[in-house]
């Protein structure tokens, strides 16, 4: 059940009840591609840093350890010891990023494993079966994330096929949820809007899929090479065409500034590898921009990454110590940076929700963006 509790302009904050617990939106999903956050972060850590939803990847878990194995072990929640919501993406983005290793057909996609090269086929039914075996809270429909840039003709054909695949996904998910022995018979299905930077194709596709009465709607195929301005323009066109009373998910986005702008346009769900990836390279987020802890100026800096931050790194360690760990290639340095970044993102979402619910989002967004552009003393 998804219920909007406050709006402020186009920004909305909602309360969503799922079989694995409540999600308060806007929410940032912490990306644990293979059922773990890269950077030695445990699910017990995720609770400590305020994670609401963990995101895992259908393709990667199908390849290793295998979705049948996860099912035999009780599903993804039990496997990774996480009792809160999980969203699994469909594998479409990973499959389509394999360029030279795959062939797209109407029935689905034939491709080779990036690990050992063995041949795999994945179509809408296979993606739904894998995600059902994983037992995630929310499953994503199988779609084509078209290349950027793509011709108008290519995009029209791709979007039409994605729509046909979505119909097949919906039918298969209903069958799986009704079947005996299903890990999560209450699994939700989100459809994905595509169309690149062609606003009219996007809008037509949004109108088509909104009539399919899905559990939620994602906007895919952005943050793949277009400018931020182009992305915001597409959101301005598409979000108003999607059901207001259903969750809206902007896939693979993004920076803190991207999130603030997305929320301002009515987005509920976000995910991105930035906080964990940047953290593993010593780049940490603060309210005064991003810091590179490898820089020599932090060698004697006995302050936390950010004053007042309540993450495990900032409560216990200095910039100087974390820099030393990073320089020494000690895994703890990477872990502390990832924990800080994920906490920063999760806490930012808490602040966003409060600002919307107190009807001061516009001023909040302006203040935050100005802070990100500033530099600390």
Automatic annotation (TrEMBL):
Gene Ontology molecular-function annotations: metal ion binding; tRNA-guanosine(34) queuine transglycosylase activity
Gene3D superfamilies (alphabetical): Queuine tRNA-ribosyltransferase-like
Matching InterPro entries: ArchSynthase1/Queuine_TRR, TGT, TGT-like_sf, tRNA_ribo_trans-like
Ranges for region RNA binding: 252-258
Keyword Cytoplasm attached: no
Cofactors (names): Zn(2+)
GO cellular component, one term: cytosol
Domain tRNA-guanine(15) transglycosylase-like: 11-370
Domain of life: Bacteria
Role summary: Catalyzes the base-exchange of a guanine (G) residue with the queuine precursor 7-aminomethyl-7-deazaguanine (PreQ1) at position 34 (anticodon wobble position) in tRNAs with GU(N) anticodons (tRNA-Asp, -Asn, -His and -Tyr). Catalysis occurs through a double-displacement mechanism. The nucleophile active site attacks the C1' of nucleotide 34 to detach the guanine base from the RNA, forming a covalent enzyme-RNA intermediate. The proton acceptor active site deprotonates the incoming PreQ1, allowing a nucleophilic attack on the C1' of the ribose to form the product.
Enzyme Commission number: 2.4.2.29
Listed name of the protein: Queuine tRNA-ribosyltransferase
UniProt: substrate binding residues: 89-93, 143, 194, 221
Phosphoprotein listed as a keyword: no
Signal sequence region: none
Enzyme class: transferase
Catalysed reaction equations from the record: 7-aminomethyl-7-carbaguanine + guanosine(34) in tRNA = 7-aminomethyl-7-carbaguanosine(34) in tRNA + guanine
Cofactor mode of binding and number, as noted: Binds 1 zinc ion per subunit.
Binding of Zn(2+), residues: 309, 311, 314, 340
Transmembrane regions: none
């Amino acid at each position: 059940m998804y219920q909007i509790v406050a709006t402020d302009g186009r920004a909305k904050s909602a309360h969503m009840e799922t079989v694995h617990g409540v999600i308060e939106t806007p929410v940032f999903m912490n990306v644990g591609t293979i059922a773990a956050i890269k950077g030695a972060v445990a699910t017990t850590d995720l609770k400590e840093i305020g994670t609401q939803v963990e995101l895992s990847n259908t393709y990667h878990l199908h390849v290793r350890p295998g979705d049948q194995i996860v099912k035999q072990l009780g599903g993804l929640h039990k496997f990774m010891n996480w009792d809160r919501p999980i969203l699994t993406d469909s594998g479409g983005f990973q499959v389509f990023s394999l360029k030279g290793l795959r062939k797209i057909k109407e029935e689905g996609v034939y491709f080779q494993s990036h690990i050992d090269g063995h041949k795999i086929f994945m179509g809408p039914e296979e993606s739904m079966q894998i995600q059902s075996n994983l037992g995630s809270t929310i499953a994503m429909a199988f779609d084509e994330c078209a290349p950027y840039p793509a011709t108008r003709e290519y995009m029209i054909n791709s979007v039409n096929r994605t729509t046909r695949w979505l119909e097949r996904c919906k039918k298969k998910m209903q069958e799986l949820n009704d079947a005996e022995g299903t890990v999560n018979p209450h699994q939700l299905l989100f459809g994905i809007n595509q169309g690149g930077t062609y606003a009219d194709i996007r809008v037509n596709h949004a109108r088509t899929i909104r009539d399919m009465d899905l559990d939620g709607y994602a906007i895919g195929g952005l943050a793949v090479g277009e400018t931020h301005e182009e992305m915001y323009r597409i959101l301005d066109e598409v979000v108003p065409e999607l059901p207001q009373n259903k969750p809206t998910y902007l896939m693979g986005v993004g920076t803190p500034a991207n999130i603030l702008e997305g929320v301002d346009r009515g987005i509920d769900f976000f995910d991105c590898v930035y906080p964990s990836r940047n953290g593993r390279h010593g780049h940490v987020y603060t309210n005064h921009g991003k810091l590179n802890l490898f820089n020599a100026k932090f060698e004697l800096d006995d302050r936390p990454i950010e004053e007042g931050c309540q993450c495990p790194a900032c409560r216990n360690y200095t910039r100087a110590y974390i820099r030393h760990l990073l320089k020494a290639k000690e895994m703890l340095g990477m872990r502390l940076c990832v924990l800080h970044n994920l906490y920063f993102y999760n806490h930012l979402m808490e602040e966003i929700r409060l600002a919307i619910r107190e009807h001061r989002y516009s001023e909040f967004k302006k203040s935050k963006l100005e802070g990100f552009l500033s530099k600390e003393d």
